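Sat 14:20. Reprocessing the chain from the morning session after the first attempt stalled halfway. Input below, unchanged.
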Amino acid sequence: MDEKVQVPVGFADIGELESKYVNEVLRTKRISYGPFIQKFEKEFATAHGCKHAVMSNSGTSALRVAIAALKEHRGWKDGSEVLIPAITFVATSNVVLMQGLKPVFVDVEPDTYNLDPKELEKHLTKKTVCIMPVHIAGLPCDMEPIMKFAKKHNLAVVEDSCETMFAKYKGKPVGSFGDVGCFSTYVAHILVSGVGGLSITNDNELAVLMRSLCNHGRDSIYLSIDDDDDLKGKELEMVMDRRFKFVREGYSFRVTEFEGALALAQFERRKDILEKRQKNAKMLNEGLADLKQYLQLPSVPSDRNHVFMFYPIVCKGAVERDKLTLFLEENGIETRHLLPLINQPFYVKEFGELESRYPVAANLNKKAFYIGAHQHIGEKEIKHVINVMHKYFEKNKN
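Finished this time. C-alpha cells:
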C-alpha cells in the first residue's frame, strides 16, 4: 500500500563495481593517496573541461582550499568581500568567514533559485574580490553575465558546484568557467563516495596551492609517497630535505583510496545515474503538472541542462509549505527546506535581520522545499509522490 512506500531524499548506490574497486584497495594495502584517487581526479577534471582536480575530504574542504589558495595567490586582505547567493547551503558562506573574509549576500532568481546576475552591481564595493555562484540542485547558473561582471571588475570566480556535476551551460561544463570549480561526493549527492570533494582548475599554480593546503601546507615537492620514486643522487637528496617541510598554514583534508575507489566506480557509471535522475524528474513534472496552480515546479532554461541532485518545489499563494511537507513526511516522503541561509540563527546573530533586503530569498525560505529524484527511486515511488500530493490538495482545496 502507498503508506508503506519510502521516498528518501538521498541514497548511497553501491554496486558490484564499487565493491570490486574497494576490494582492490584492500588487496593492495595502498590506503593513502594512490592510483584510484589519481585516476578519478584526472578523469573528472577532463569531463569538466579542466586540467587539474584535487580531491579532498568534502565539498566544504574543496571550497575552503579554493578560497584559501586564491587569497594567497591574489593577496587578498582580511575583510575583503565575497559575493554569494542568499540561497545556498551554509558551507558556501562559512568557508568565506573561515578565511577571514566577509560574505556579501546577493538575491537569487525566482525561477532557477540561482544567483541573479542583475543583482550583483548593487552589492559591489571597493572591497569586493570574488563571486561564488552556486549551481543549485543540479542546474547551472546564468554564467555568461556573471563572468562578464567578474572580468569587468577584476574579480575571481569560485563556482560552488557541490550539487551539480556534468551539467552544461551553453555547451560548457559547470566548474570550468571560474578560477576554481568545487564539487562534493557526499552521501545524497550525484556521485557518492561517502565523504569527498574536488576542486578543479586550469591554473597550474592554484592546483599546486590547493594540493599543498589539503596536506597541512606541505612543500609541493612531496605530496604523495610516489613523489620520490626512481630518484637518485642530488634529486633524491633535495626531496629528502624538503619532504617534511611546511611552507604555509594548511589543513588535514586528505581522503583515502577507499573514497577514491568508490568515486571512480560511480564516475564510470555516471551515464546511468544521470539518466535515471532525469527520468524521475520528468515523471514528476508530468505527474504534478495539473497542480501548477498550487506548486512551482523546476524551471530549466533552454541554454542549459538539469541533472537533478534533488527536485525543488515552491508553494504558491496561500499554500502552506510546512503543512504540505508534514503531510508528505507522514506518508514516507522525505523533505528538506530549500537551502535557507540568511535566516539561519547563526547568520541572524552575525548580520542581523536580512530577509527584508532579499525578497526572493525570503519567499523561498518560507515557501520552498525539495524531495528526492535519485536513481534508487523507481516508478512506484514516483507514483506514490504524485498520489500523495494530489491527496493533499484534494483534502485542502480551500
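The chain has two domains: 16-268, 270-395.
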